[in-house]
UniProtKB/TrEMBL annotation:
This is F-box only protein 25. The keyword Nucleus applies. Pathway: Protein modification; protein ubiquitination. Signal peptide: none annotated. The keyword DNA repair does not apply. It is found in: Nucleus. It comes from the Eukaryota. The lineage of its organism: Eukaryota, Metazoa, Chordata, Craniata, Vertebrata. Its main location: nucleus. GO terms for biological process: protein ubiquitination. Coiled coil: none annotated. CDD domains: F-box_FBXO25. Keywords: Nucleus, Ubl conjugation pathway.
């Protein structure tokens, strides 16, 4: 479409793409948040003044959506932590780096981020009132099947805190071995073997150790693509 054509800079692309609508789509939400996190880590100063304003407007909508829907607050907490760290460095280094806009505006934005972080910290998850079948009522093989479908180790640990049964299943060596094999090549985890006290490989520790050395595969329901023929960014 014409609204996604003719990009010259990161800021222009960010302004033209409709991220406000994209965050309403559950398939695109995590992808957009991850994109904002990448910009926060290294490309914030590459955005124009208008793009930076748009960035914080979209971020505001994301935070409000998480507060209302309680969807994936941990992902947003990571984004805000990276953004606040970057802003602290940029504000301290005014004059040494390019920071578009008045310093007072950036201080206000940093204060807003701190407020968002506090709101997310105080977020209380609503308990679902349901007299029907619950997660605890499922047979062990179904609960185990659910755990094996997770691709993030922290999600497995979080689910394992729900009930003693899920904790037992989340500590299964075979589960963490499969997770290591999914994200990392054999030659990678052969370099960082971590034996347990009984002499077996501790695959859970292996997973988090390997995370520090190698980037893991990330999965998204929908992603942006670039057409080499007509130079258009588009959703898959």
């Amino acid at each position: 479409s014409s609204q996604r054509h003719g990009y010259c800079t990161l800021g222009e692309a960010f302004n033209r793409l409709d991220f406000s609508s994209a965050i309403q789509d559950i398939r695109r939400f995590n992808y957009v948040v991850k994109l904002l996190q990448l910009i926060a880590k290294s490309q914030l100063t590459s955005l124009s003044g208008a793009a930076q304003k748009n960035y914080f407007n979209i971020l505001d909508k994301i935070v409000q959506k998480v507060m209302e829907d309680q969807y994936n607050p941990r992902l947003i907490k990571d984004l805000l932590q990276d953004l606040s760290s970057t802003l602290c460095i940029l504000i301290r280094g005014v004059g040494k780096s390019v920071l578009v806009g008045n310093i007072n505006i950036w201080i206000c934005r940093l204060e807003t981020i701190l407020l968002w972080q506090q709101q997310l910290k105080n977020l209380q998850m609503n308990k679902q009132v349901n007299n029907g079948l619950t997660l605890s009522d499922l047979p062990l093989h179904m609960l185990n099947n659910i755990l094996y479908r997770f691709s993030d180790g922290w999600d497995i640990i979080t689910l394992g805190q729900v009930t003693p049964t899920l904790y037992m299943l989340s500590e299964d060596r075979q589960l963490w071995k499969k997770l290591c094999q999914y994200h990392f090549a054999e030659k990678q985890f052969c370099r960082h073997l971590i034996p347990s006290e009984k002499g077996h490989i501790d695959w859970k520790l292996m997973y988090f150790a390997l995370q520090k050395y190698y980037p893991i595969k990330e999965q998204y329901g929908d992603t942006l693509h670039f057409c080499r023929h007509c130079s258009i960014l588009f959703w898959k």
